[in-house]
Amino acid sequence: MLATRREFLKWTRQGILAIGLFTLLAAPTTLAQSDPLPSWNDTAPKQAIVSFVEKVTRQGSPEFVAEPERIAVFDNDGTLWVEHPMYTQLAFALDRVKTLAPQHPEWQTVQPFKAALDGDMKTLAASGEKGLLEIIMVTHAGMTTDEFQKVVTDWLATARDPKFKRPYTELVYQPMVELLAYLRANGFKTFIVSGGGVEFMRPWTEKAYGVPPEQVVGSSIKTEFKMQDDTPTLRRLPEVNFIDDKAGKPVGINEEIGRRPIAAFGNSDGDLEMLQWTTMAGAPARLGMLVHHTDAEREYAYDRNTDFGRLDKALDAAAITGWTVIDMKADWKQIFKD
């Protein structure tokens, strides 16, 4: 009986060791076979991403990039989430006008506030950047940073996109969420660099994209420190501090990140200079990509002729610089997470 028990334990130990060895040998193969970008079709953009990541992360490769220098920057509107029929932050500002209107009876006759209250988008668009900035200043200032964060969070919890009838934070692009995670898994630090308001984005980007607030670069209004009822606060002022769009994006990257990115992702002419700054630096490996909205059925189709997310000069530049254009209809299996 004792001998039988010894033999049983011997074979058990050998079996455990064999299983453990098999697991160690099999694990790399399993990992290698798993697809980190399942929402992408196996077309040129996906291949370009995987090839780029393999080159810059392979030790001994002439294009190897050390982890601290693996910086990837992403525009937000139209690159990571929907921007039609209007930028989400503009929808927020227009709702804020309606909320604040009882305190401002003069808005019933003063533009661009009258247009905002009447839903007159044509007149509102005609007011141009000046009119839109005026609305932003009035609806985003006059409160502390903590108060503004609560207003944004509360609005996002209840607001619904007019086409998809879903919360805006559910209308993030699943392929790009996978891309962000894939880059981070390979030692990249991912940043959002957007023309949108930095404090409008920071309350929700970590949950939606895995990008923490300190890695969000955006436009801002001025703030001032004040003691309010013996409590230190930062109060938002109705003055522009910085516009993080077009030529402002490389400036924002330099000031806030301090390293030149090796990968940049955008979707409009507002991202042109960011992609130029990233890819035209002469480094061994750089990646520039543009999301082209071509799917009218699952999302929207637009490029050169649109008020929001115009893709014209950057689309022409892509053919010259070698940037990869992502055809949303052809290259993405799905747009949003089910």
TrEMBL record:
It comes from the Bacteria. PANTHER family: PHOSPHATASE RV3661-RELATED (PTHR43344:SF13), PHOSPHOSERINE PHOSPHATASE (PTHR43344). This is NapD-like protein. Keywords: Hydrolase, Magnesium, Metal-binding, Plasmid. It comes from Rhizobium favelukesii. PROSITE patterns: TAT. GO terms for molecular function: hydrolase activity; metal ion binding. InterPro entries: HAD-like_SerB, HAD-like_sf, HAD_sf, TAT_signal. SUPFAM superfamilies: HAD-like (SSF56784).
